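User: Let's play a game. I give you a shape written as tokens, and you guess the letters that built it. Ready? Here's round one.
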């Protein structure tokens, strides 16, 4: 196995995690970074031993020595043009979610990746959470019997919600519940979603023009139901605190997963009670990583270096996108939305539309 050459565009929160994973991995021979914030670029380049550090992402795309790119830049409208350029240049791509803003853009990216025989995968990191992997295994090996219903509740803090909302007007379905839609569709394969109904509820974030929570009910083609509640208005419990509860019910058993991060409590005079290690992507604790994103990043390097399949196929990321677009359409119309959503009716359901 030859070590691979990796480029990362955007070294903010997630890009830094991925860059540190690359810097630590023997699978990666050389690391190249692009970031428009020069201070941040120097900081992450110094931390990871990157051989290239540029403010112009197109320089990385033009570098024929780079085999694999990770695209972690925001706003999310950058995902499509950056991924398209990288795939057209013949590079394998790990793209943070969402895959794109419109379904036709996702279709185009998938077409280019397939035509060029490239690995193309989307950052649905929760598949690398061992508790969620256990659900998938328990379905595959028959422990749970036939699936009956899925219930997911996910919340993040209003400060993180405000960060996300400052750069894009995508809904809680597109930005938060998207992880749980991906997870549920993955577990329930080969079933397909046929119907979606969704409602939003307004509260503490109303003055920013976004609802606090979104509830989505998905019906699969054999009648299995998936209910997801996702919100981004919790008070802080830790920087980027997240809490999740999953109930997977089958005919032979149930798996109930508590990822509410109440297992570690830090109590200080300065900040009161906090719940460390409670972010969605996870974080480094000196020499170890707590959370799914490091493993997901290494998995991508392994897929490229050893020519293995990627865990998150873009086909399913596209289906996930179709479901959250249907959810947003359901909010706008107050109606149940049947799938598939025709591509020309699937414009991004921006919250500006919901609020108007
Ligand atoms: N999988 C997960 O658990 C998870 C968690 C959080 C965010 N995300 C996704 O990851 C992506 C990144 O989120 P984040 O929180 O790290 O964002 P962030 O804002 O912290 O970082 C994005 C970085 O991109 C840089 N950037 C912007 N334009 C650029 C350009 N033209 N060239 C190079 N760099 C550019 C910004 O300066 C910033 O440093 C988002 O798409 C988000 O949806 C995934």
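Assistant: Ready! My guess for every position:
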């Amino acid at each position: 196995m030859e070590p691979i050459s990796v480029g990362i565009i955007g070294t903010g929160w997630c890009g830094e995690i991925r860059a540190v994973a690359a810097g630590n991995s023997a699978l990666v021979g050389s690391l190249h970074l692009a970031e428009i914030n020069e201070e941040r670029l120097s900081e992450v380049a110094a931390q990871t031993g990157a051989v290239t550090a540029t403010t112009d992402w197109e320089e990385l795309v033009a570098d024929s020595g780079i085999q694999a790119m990770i695209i972690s830049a925001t706003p999310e409208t950058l995902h499509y043009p950056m991924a398209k350029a990288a795939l057209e240049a013949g590079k394998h791509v790990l793209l943070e979610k969402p895959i794109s803003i419109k379904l036709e853009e996702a279709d185009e990216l998938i077409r280019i990746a397939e035509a060029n025989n490239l690995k193309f995968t989307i950052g649905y990191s929760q598949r690398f959470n061992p508790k969620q992997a256990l659900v998938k295994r328990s379905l595959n090996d028959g422990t749970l019997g036939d699936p009956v219903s899925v219930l997911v509740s996910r919340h993040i803090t209003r400060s993180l919600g405000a960060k996300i909302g400052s750069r894009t007007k995508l809904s809680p379905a597109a930005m938060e519940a998207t992880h749980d839609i991906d997870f549920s569709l993955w577990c329930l394969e080969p079933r397909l979603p046929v119907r979606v109904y969704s409602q939003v509820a307004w509260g503490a974030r109303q003055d920013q023009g976004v609802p606090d929570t979104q509830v989505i009910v998905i019906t699969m083609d054999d009648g299995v139901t998936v209910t997801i509640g996702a919100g981004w208005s919790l008070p802080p419990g830790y920087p980027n605190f997240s809490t999740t509860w999953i109930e997977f019910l089958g005919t032979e058993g149930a798996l109930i997963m508590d990822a509410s991060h109440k297992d570690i409590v830090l109590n200080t005079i300065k900040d009161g009670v906090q719940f460390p290690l409670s972010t969605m992507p996870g974080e480094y604790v000196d020499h170890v990583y707590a959370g799914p994103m490091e493993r997901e990043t290494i998995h991508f390097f392994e897929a490229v270096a050893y020519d293995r399949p990627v865990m998150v196929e873009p086909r399913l990321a596209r289906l996930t996108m179709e479901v959250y677009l249907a959810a947003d359409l359901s909010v706008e119309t107050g109606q149940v939305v049947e799938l598939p959503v025709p591509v020309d009716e699937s414009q991004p359901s921006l919250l500006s539309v919901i609020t108007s």
